[in-house]
Design brief:
Strand content: under 5%
Distance between the termini: 47 Å
Largest sheet: 3 strands, antiparallel
Shape: extended
Radius of gyration: 27 Å
Order of helices and strands: HHHHHHHHHHEEHEH
Low-confidence stretches: none
Helix content: over 70%
Length: 316
């Protein structure tokens, strides 16, 4: 009797990739919910279909799967903008068909070339960044189709003609994507790997970042308390809004302290007393000093970690 084949184990990081992909898809679906009741479900369905299909084809290509899902989300956002601006009266069925055409063309092309694309999709280190312009050549004709769709007076056509024009434009994009599937796969995989590398670098400077945020929050709270105390001790309103004096309860004081320290200055709450204006000036200066200190500390930590990493590589 032949030994039973060992059960297929999920690759490392599978759960994280699935969670990030579906979470991003849900976020984008919520953002484009104004496009109709069907479109958000199509976005979620396409993200799930893409992730499942690519996992079956490339079980160790989770970077490519995540990069593709992120690319699909970006595509959904751009499609919503182009569809609303260039084809505002296109009927719902035409919009659905046009949205799905490039997606299915991409998945079919990946399936047909799965053997030649496996090495690219399952790589663990990004290509030389100098290759990115060559990988992204397919974007030029895609953007040209979008530019022509927005420049031509298609939005003045009758409803049926707008739908036909939208399907035609997305059909051209589908052909471009299918013909350039190798460059698309390389670009999406590299983008995901570069994103992960940047996330790893950010995690190495997490301690100074958290310390800076903690000090920043403390400074906001301290000045919010000072504003509230000053208002409580004053016989006249120290802060005004568009409709006149405001009592400045603590939540409003906290909000005013945050926008002051960030030097945003929305103008919905403004100081109307010389002493409070002086206090806000002190907070702005203190916030800028803290910002410079935090940046310097983050850069120092980055240099130290880089030196330690280089010493370990020389030791190996």
């Amino acid at each position: 009797m032949s030994a039973a084949a060992p059960p297929r184990r999920l690759p490392q990081g599978w759960l994280r990739s699935v969670a990030m992909t579906l979470g991003f898809g849900l976020l984008v679906a919520g953002g484009v919910a104004d496009q109709g009741t069907i479109f958000p479900f199509m976005v979620i369905g396409v993200a799930a279909l893409g992730l499942g299909t690519l996992y079956l084809l490339f079980p160790h290509g989770l970077h490519f799967a995540f990069g593709t899902s992120a690319g699909l989300a970006v595509y959904a956002c751009l499609y919503a903008v182009m569809g609303r601006a260039g084809f505002p009266e296109a009927p719902g069925p035409a919009r659905a068909i046009a949205f799905l055409l490039p997606v299915f063309a991409f998945l079919v092309a990946v399936w047909r070339r799965r053997r030649t694309l496996r090495m690219v999709a399952e790589q663990e280190h990004p290509f030389d960044l100098g290759h990115l312009p060559r990988m992204a050549r397919w974007l030029v004709p895609v953007w040209a189709v979008g530019a022509f769709s927005l420049a031509l007076p298609v939005n003045r056509l009758p409803v049926f003609d707008q739908g036909a024009a939208l399907i035609g434009a997305m059909g051209v994009i589908a052909v471009i994507v299918a013909a350039s599937v190798g460059g698309v796969v390389r670009l999406l995989t590299d983008m995901a790997l570069i994103t992960e590398e940047l996330a790893g670098r950010a995690s190495r400077i997490l301690v100074p970042v958290v310390a800076f945020l903690a000090m920043y929050a403390m400074l906001v709270i301290v000045f919010a308390c000072l504003y509230r105390i000053a208002q409580g001790l004053s016989m006249v309103p120290l802060f005004h809004g568009p409709q006149g004096p405001v009592p400045l309860p603590f939540p409003d004081a906290l909000y005013f302290s945050l926008v002051t320290q960030a030097t945003v200055g929305y103008g919905d709450v403004t100081p109307h007393d010389d002493g409070i204006r002086l206090l806000t000036s002190i907070q702005v200066v203190a916030g800028q000093v803290l910002l410079l200190f935090g940046f310097a500390e983050i850069m120092r930590t980055r240099r130290v970690l880089g030196a330690d990493h280089g010493a370990r590589r020389q030791g190996d």
